[in-house]
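hi got a favour to ask and not much time before my train. below you get a single protein, a line of residues and a line of whole numbers that encode the local backbone shape. could you go over both lines and see whether the tokens make sense for that sequence. a few lines back from you is plenty, here it is:
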Amino acid sequence: MKKLIIVGAGGFGREVYAWAKDHPDFGKAWELAGFIDDDAAALDRYNYPVGVIGSIKEHQPAENEVFVCAIGAPIIKKKVCQSLLSRSATFVSLVHPSVILGENIQLGDGVVLCPRVTLTADISIGDFAAINCHSSVGHDVVIGDWATISGHCDLTGNTRYGTGAFLATGVRIVPSKSVGEFAYVGAGAVVIQSVKDGQKVFGNPARVF
């Protein structure tokens, strides 16, 4: 049996720990071995049966280890995962059993889909993208590598999300608009115009601050 190691012991890491225990591979294909994080004290205030077993910078992946990335910030996520991949780490995708998967859904490597996510039809999700609880993704949506979609977001049909795009909680995107590479959309924003690469937008309607 493989050992599953969660990369990142912050808030998202603790959530992923909970969702991993619901996965059908838990106790069969892999067991939860712990977290790696450069903050050795990240879990000191919490009661978990497994802890931080080492730092991200120094961990050398073993053949019997697999990893799931639980870092929300796309730039940091990309840097950390690429570093581990260069050390021959093997990442798995974690799709919670409550996720609704429609027709023609393409998932990249290392994807995390949290409880109650809905993917409707003809959707492409890139490597290491993450979608948090209760978000819905409409038809013909494309989500790029390293993107993070927070909880309760509504990604309507024919929308596009570039590499490393970040949507905070409760974002709404009207159909056929796009969010550029490493752009940031603030909590509760309603996007009615496409967001350019690297832009940060907030509000209803969303605008650059």
Remarks:
- The chain has two domains: 2-92, 95-199.
- The chain is about 10% helix and 35% strand.
- The first strand starts at residue 2 and ends at 7.
- The two ends are 50 Å apart (CA to CA).
